[in-house]
Amino acid sequence: MDRHLAVVALAATVLCAGCTSRPAPSTATDAWRGGLSTPVADTLYPEHGNPGLDVLHYDLKLDWQPASKVLTGVATLRVRPVVAASSIVLDFANLAVDTVTVDDAPATGTLADQKLTVPATLVADRPVTLVVGYHGTPEPVSYPSRRGDAKEGVGLRPAKGGGLWTMQEPWGALTWYPANELISDEALYDIAVTVPEGWAAVASGTPGPVDGTTYRYTSADPVATYLTTLAVDRYQKVTATGPHGLPLTYWVVPETDDKLLTELKKSPKMLTWLESKLGRYPFETAGALVNGSISAMETQQMLSLGRPGGSWSEDTRRWFEQTLVHEYAHQWFGDAVTPSTWTDLWLNEGFAQYMQYLYEQEIDGFSDAALETFLRGRDAQLRKSVGPPGKPKAANFAESNVYVCGAAMLKELNDALGDTEFFALMTAWVAEHRNTNQDRAAFITFVEARTGTDFSELINAWLDSPTTPA
């Protein structure tokens, strides 16, 4: 996720001065084995998600009517109970439930406190199929942060003029489909969205065929709920080709987004640069949609980018370019390899922020010494005001410490190893842990195993110290 609202652009500043493995598939889950997870209760936000359930696959059939602002949906979930239970409990908010079935048998669904509860006899590791029909006008929900975009809330919301868009970290999928909002429960997806003539629907995943005005997207790699996206607007579809023939798709509103499209067309060069550092892009397609947010998200295979406010300027252009690199870097760090809990958000944001800084350094030509000075100065400020990145506070979700302080730790590790060994380490981290959830302990163990050196003191100091380490 973008942190431009709390972090001054580096170039301007310096120029002025534990592992969650996937369970083995059983015959009952073999068809959806790519969606198998080991859900764990989130330590920061235990009120969200259900660690007793592992959603293997979401099939979402949606219809959006811009005139009435009504979303109608049928969500079919293939769910593996982790433990025996007497009900299916999922996150769901602000929409009305019309019909519910469990394994084709009629059932009831009760909504309360952003939870959908469906009575059912669940046997551990015996999957069931839940189908929920629903409708309503979606509304965002709040999340705990002092970030500038926290005022927007998170989740799906109608846009002026009849469109629709979402930003949803650490939760928000619950505003448009019944979801298990655990970062550790990743699933496969099929999304079909029907819109009126003249409108286009965009979602995360690989674009599929368009049938009339129904747009289809498939995620063959598992996706955490916060990394899904949906947008409807009078979009123009622009296609391009990235490194090694990678299909790229940009969704923009003509005239409104012309300047942004010019920057989006730099994507092949950005992805080529990232691949030179991190190895092959981890998914089968890439792209970006532009929406009405003031922020940006690394939604899987299809970035969600807000339109910059105010007049277009060189500073605005630079911010958008830097943001684009940041969100593409997340496809490796956060999407291909995802933290097990929100406590380890630095595993996402520190890595993406460091790659953004290195890109800015290459474009603007400032020195390693300048980068070090910036990082240490900003790191000291953030540890004092927000705390260390490895001990985030529930009330301060995704504030700048997990970005900048995490990047500062990676700079120290990079300096200790040198570029060749450091980027070989980063490439191997993603390649060997692709489509899994990881934690701090797993990262420390991996670094020692790959380098032959115990870097736990360095890593833990930068993640836990209340002041900037020496």
Automatic annotation (TrEMBL):
Q: Does the keyword Metal-binding apply?
A: yes
Superkingdom of the source species? Bacteria
Per the record, the GO terms for biological process are: proteolysis
Q: Which Pfam families match?
A: Peptidase_M1
Q: Give cofactor(s), names only.
A: Zn(2+)
**EC numbers, comma separated:** 3.4.11.2
Record domain Peptidase M1 membrane alanine aminopeptidase: where: 286-462
UniProt keyword annotations, A-Z = Hydrolase, Metal-binding, Metalloprotease, Protease, Zinc
Q: Which reaction does it catalyse?
A: Release of an N-terminal amino acid, Xaa-|-Yaa- from a peptide, amide or arylamide. Xaa is preferably Ala, but may be most amino acids including Pro (slow action). When a terminal hydrophobic residue is followed by a prolyl residue, the two may be released as an intact Xaa-Pro dipeptide
MF-aspect GO terms: alanyl aminopeptidase activity; metallopeptidase activity; zinc ion binding
EC primary class: hydrolase
User: So what family is this one in?
Assistant: Belongs to the peptidase M1 family.
Give the protein name, as stated in the record: Aminopeptidase N
